[in-house]
């Protein structure tokens, strides 16, 4: 059963936790001693519901969502104390997004720890979603070690520092539709109109959907994406980059 830990699984989990390089003496100590209750908690963070309907990562994921937002707020308060509430909200939205969680999960190679049932194993489209969810559950499990966000911030602050710099340098790359909407409103134009055409039926195809952006009835840019959302965001990004190049923004 997935909730029973053998020596191989314990070593796999402790090796993974060491690789996170969380600079905390008390966290290192629970890894060194292989505290079984703590290891069991982490093991649960890696179990998908397709494998076990009762013992899986869903509760830790739910918990991790709140922990992540609090830790990100804590980071922003320390790093950008002069930032307005609105700016903080925008930045935090990027630092706790599903896309950010999936990227982090890929960087730490969390997938090698995840236990899935046959149904999820055969569903390639759910791969990124599961990676993001398990990463959020992992964050919840790190918090539960000490009921403190200290270790979460010790782990994520350096990552957030790099990612927040990228976002603040070019926010349109991360929220292109919002930036384009605000630009239209500043010019007194109607909101952008996005028209989607499905080009391919293949799931995961980066050119499955084509999107054209119209402003005041005129087509201004086009782009592809593997989903409606991605195609729209890419088309908006293309247009904003055109505006930057021509000095309109």
Q: Which H/E pattern describes the elements?
A: HHHHHHHHHHEEEH
- What is the number of helical segments per DSSP (H or I, 4+ residues)? 11
Beta-strand content bin: 5-15%
CATH-assigned homologous superfamily of the largest domain: Ribonuclease III domain
**Shape assignment:** globular
Annotated CATH topology of the largest domain: Ribonuclease iii, N-terminal Endonuclease Domain, Chain A
Distance between the termini: 58 Å
Number of domain units: 2
Q: What can you see in these coordinates?
A:
It is a single chain. This protein is globular. Helices cover 59% and strands 8% of the residues. A three-stranded antiparallel beta sheet has the order 1-2-3, covered by helices on one side. The chain is mostly helical and 249 residues long. The chain has helices at 7-19, 25-32, 36-45, 58-79, 85-95, 98-107, 118-121, 127-146, 150-169, 176-186, 228-246, and strands at 193-198, 209-215, 218-225. The protein folds into two domains: 7-169, Ribonuclease iii, N-terminal Endonuclease Domain, Chain A (Orthogonal Bundle), CATH 1.10.1520.10; 176-246, 2-Layer Sandwich (Double Stranded RNA Binding Domain), CATH 3.30.160.20.
């Amino acid at each position: 059963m997935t909730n029973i830990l053998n020596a191989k699984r314990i070593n796999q989990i402790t090796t993974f936790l060491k690789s996170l390089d969380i600079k905390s003496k008390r966290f290192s100590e629970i890894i060194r001693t292989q505290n079984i209750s703590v290891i069991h908690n982490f093991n649960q963070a890696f179990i998908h519901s397709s494998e076990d309907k009762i013992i899986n990562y869903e509760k830790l994921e739910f918990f991790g969502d709140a922990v992540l937002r609090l830790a990100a707020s804590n980071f922003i308060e320390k790093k950008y104390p002069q930032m307005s509430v609105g700016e903080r909200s925008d930045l935090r939205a990027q630092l706790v997004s599903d896309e950010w969680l999936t990227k982090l999960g890929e960087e730490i190679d969390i997938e090698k720890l995840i236990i899935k049932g046959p149904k999820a194993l055969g569903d390639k489209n759910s791969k990124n979603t599961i990676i993001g969810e398990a990463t959020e559950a992992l964050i919840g499990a790190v918090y539960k070690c000490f009921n403190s966000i200290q270790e979460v911030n010790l782990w994520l602050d350096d990552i957030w520092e790099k990612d927040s710099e990228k976002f603040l340098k070019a926010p349109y790359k991360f929220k292109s539709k919002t930036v384009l909407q605000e630009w239209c409103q500043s010019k007194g134009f109607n909101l952008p109109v996005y028209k989607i055409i499905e080009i391919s039926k293949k799931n995961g195809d980066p050119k499955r959907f084509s999107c054209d952006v119209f402003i005041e009835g005129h087509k201004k840019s086009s782009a592809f994406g593997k989903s409606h959302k991605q195609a729209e965001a890419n088309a908006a990004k293309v247009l904003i980059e055109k505006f930057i190049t021509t000095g309109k923004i």
